Amino acid sequence: MxxxxxxxxxxxxxxxxxQALAAVAGVLxxxxxxxxxxxxxxxxxxxxxxxAEDGSIPADSSISPYDSDHPAIARLDPELLSAVRTxxxxxxxxxxxxxxxxxxxxxxxxQRLLDDAVTRYGSLEEARRLVxxxxxxxHVTGDAIDIGPTDAADWLIRHGRDYGLCQTxxxxxWHFELSTAxxxxxxxxxxxxxx
Length: 195
Hints:
CATH topology of the domain at 54-178: Muramoyl-pentapeptide Carboxypeptidase, domain 2
Structural class: alpha+beta
Shape: globular
Largest sheet: 4 strands, antiparallel
CATH class of the domain at 54-178: Alpha Beta
Number of helices: 7
Helix content: 25-40%
Number of strands: 4
CATH architecture of the domain at 54-178: 2-Layer Sandwich
Order of helices and strands: HHHHEHHEHEE
């Protein structure tokens, strides 16, 4: 991975002292985030220049449950986020990295996902098996989180109840909600999002 040189940026900056300092600080934050050994492959969402005010996370990436600057994390229910962060710590100790592939979503983003699913699957009925309407989506209320990669979702399926986190839909191994008290029994997952 290429990690930008902070000094190269500062040397080339001909703006005023405060502007130069701000520019260097910004580059430093991006460089340290992107080059951190704890970062996933590739730069973080904000270094890619992607607007994420709607909660979107690019399909080819994920974010840390500690990335509180990203609306997908910042707008989650605080109890859900706390449970996910505790689970992520324990998973890491077991050699598994929990990454967030989706968290809070705006109503507009949820509608776009539903519209895309209708186009892809050919009908609203089929699309609804995988994507809820904005009015019914637990992502829109901040009460759901999608976890990846597959080994992380599998770990959370096996251990999630210890944190109150449960797989919600049988056809979505990545989708979790806070559905029980820590250590309680998870409800049987529903067949799909349409149910």
